[in-house]
Amino acid sequence: MINITTLSENTATVNCIAEWGLSILVDVDGFKILFDTGAGSSVIHNAQIMGIDFSAIDKIVLSHGHFDHTGGLSDILKRRVQKIDVLGHPDIWTLKYSCSKEYGDRYIGMQHSRAHLEGSGAQFKLSKEPVWLTDNIVTSGEVPMITDYEGIDANLFVKEGSGFKPDVFADDLSLGIKTELGLVIILGCSHRGVINIIRRMQEITQEERVFCVVGGTHLMAGSDERISRTIEDLKKIGIQRLGVSHCTGFKASAELFKHFPDAFFNNNAGTQFSLPFS
To answer: Which of 10, 144, 149, 212 is 20 to 30 A from 233 via CA?
Structure first.
């Protein structure tokens, strides 16, 4: 049995609070993985509302080094007694910025130092390659850019010395779960493209069937062509459940609902469901 609980997201159900970011708790037959930690306070509040005990979590996985996916980590660690493995890519520690004429150069990376987090109980296990957490649960590792229509935001950079270079998001990590129905894929922000991520997971697991995809698809600023071609590929893949979050955006969500009316659902803070699906 797989139980999925969304603890932090841009929108929320009754009694939960919304906050820009994402955090999803995945329970696979009692093995609990916290995938991302939101931006800050919402994950703690919502966990209390839903009766989630952070001390019962077995692993934490960080999808990438942006504040809205990692900012709640420090407070979560404070609510534990034992140390815990925190998996991610080495590039989570790069100095990540959003640069634009309108808002200037804004730091959007990790909010706490590695030393602080390790002192609070984090045991970082960083790898560029896929990591199998169990026989059926694996991280994506680095995701190749295969499609010709999925690109990375032009306003996102990494600071090196006194200059900036484009962030290629080598740290864009997702979680894959092999089930009897096919793959269940948990997305963080899909900076390298949701279809590229799905293809990567199919390659790693040697499982072509994709039953469920949940999380951020990063289509909020996607062109009409990108959204249309993403939908075409999702149809070819044969996805059965599609729960979108965070960076999907209203326009893309509306299009996805139109083309996948039976599969689509809004996955917001407070959403809880079990697979196959209930």
So the answer is: 10
Answer yes or no: are the C-beta atoms of 177 and 136 closer than 8 Å. yes
Residue with tokens 């045991």: 123
Contact indicator for 211, 241 with CB cutoff of 8 Å: yes
Tell me if 173 sits within 8 A of 141, measured CB to CB: yes
Number of domains in the chain: 1
Length of the chain in residues, anyone?
Answer: 278
Return the amino acid letter for 8.
S
> What φ, ψ does residue 29 adopt, rounded to 5°?
50, 40
Q: What stretch of H or E contains 48?
A: helix 41-50
Helix (H) or strand (E) holding 210: strand 210-216
Residue 215 predicted with pLDDT over 60: yes
pLDDT in tens, 28-59: 999 999 999 999 989 999 999 999 999 999 99
The separation between CA 135 and the C-alpha centre of its own chain, rounded to angstroms, equals 21
Q: How far apart are CA 250 and CA 228, in angstroms?
A: 14
CB atoms within 10 A of CB 266: 15
**Dihedral Cα 277, 5, 217, 125, nearest 10 deg:** -120
Q: Quick one: tokens of 156?
A: 């996102």
pTM above 0.85, yes or no: yes
* Chain CA centroid to CA 208, Å: 21
Tell me which residue range forms the domain holding 134.
2-275
Per-residue pLDDT tens digits for 60-82: 999 999 999 999 999 999 999 99
DSSP single-letter state for residue 240: S
Q: Report the CATH number that the domain containing residue 205 is assigned in CATH.
A: 3.60.15.10
